[in-house]
């Protein structure tokens, strides 16, 4: 009886993992190999920004929110292991807050003393060019304008692989 129960629990667990992965895939609009979409957004300090400025650069686009626990776990590492360490004129980081008010984002950034560039996507217009659900999401764009990496959620070893990919793209 115990082994039958264990088998049922395992079946449910693996079925839910398969569903979750299918759901993530179906809500990812831009995938590895796709050209990244053109967009405009506004920095936290009110400066307009156009994706045109990203041509011929390696770019990390990170979508996040202040209320998101995995985002809160990822952002300190993004600051320390990417923004503070990877100093290259051909590399740009865009941390785009999805669906939040400017005051909330400003308070959060000040509280944690982040210095990476922060952009606002109050209506998720930019986010919806890349995905329709789930954060954090990371997209690494190569100098050729193609998406080289796309991830959902925060897993430390995936994050480390993303850093390696960014460094490899910068060497090209």
How would you describe what is shown here?
By secondary structure, this protein is α/β, with parallel strands linked by helices. The protein has a single domain, classed as Glutaredoxin, CATH 3.40.30.10. 41% of the residues lie in helices and 22% in strands. The protein has five helices and seven strands. It has a seven-stranded mixed β-sheet with strand order 2-1-5-4-3-6-7, covered by helices on one side. The longest helix is centred in the N-terminal third of the chain and has 25 residues. The chain is globular. About 10% of the residues have low confidence.
Q: Would you kindly provide a brief summary of this structure?
A:
The protein is of the alpha/beta class. It has helices at 2-26, 69-83, 102-112, 127-130, 156-171; strands spanning 40-43, 48-50, 58-64, 91-98, 118-121, 137-141, 147-152.
Secondary-structure content class: alpha/beta
Determine the number of helices (DSSP H or I, runs of at least 4 residues).
5
Report the radius of gyration as a whole number of Å. Answer: 18 Å
Remind me, CATH topology? Answer: Glutaredoxin
The helix/strand order is HEEEHEHEHEEH
Share of helix, binned: 40-55%
For the biggest β-sheet, the strand order reads 2-1-5-4-3-6-7
């Amino acid at each position: 009886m115990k082994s039958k129960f264990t088998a049922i629990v395992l079946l449910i667990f693996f079925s839910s993992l398969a569903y979750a992965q299918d759901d993530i895939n179906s809500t990812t609009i831009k995938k590895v190999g796709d050209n990244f979409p053109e967009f405009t957004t506004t920095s936290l300090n009110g400066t307009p920004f156009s994706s045109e400025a990203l041509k011929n650069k390696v770019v990390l686009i990170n979508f996040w929110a202040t209320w998101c626990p995995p985002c809160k776990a990822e952002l300190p590492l993004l600051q320390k292991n990417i923004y503070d360490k990877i100093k290259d004129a051909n590399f740009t980081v865009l941390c785009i807050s999805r669906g939040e008010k400017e005051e909330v984002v400003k308070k959060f950034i000040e509280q944690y003393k982040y210095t990476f560039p922060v952009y606002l996507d109050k209506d998720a217009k930019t986010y919806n060019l890349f995905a329709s659900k789930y954060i954090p999401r990371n997209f690494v764009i190569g100098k050729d304008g193609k998406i080289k990496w796309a991830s959902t959620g925060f897993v430390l070893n995936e994050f480390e692989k993303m850093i390696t990919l960014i460094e490899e793209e910068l060497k090209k």
